[in-house]
Amino acid sequence: MRFVKSLFQFLWDFFIGDTPELFVGACLAVGVAWVAHRVAPSMAIFVLPVSIAVVVGWSLNRSRRR
Question: Of 3, 10, 28, 29, which has the fewest Cβ atoms less than 10 A away?
Fold first, then answer.
């Protein structure tokens, strides 16, 4: 049981860490890119980098205001 707890704690720190909004934003960006790929496959190439840049910019702006 201790191994499972340690593994979960490692995965939490690795993926979520200090900024859970980046993890959620990245998951949403991948979801938006997947939907864009289903609608117009050529759009997914542009949607993912733009949405990640928006999420990172939002996170930096949020942390700067704190």
Answer: 3
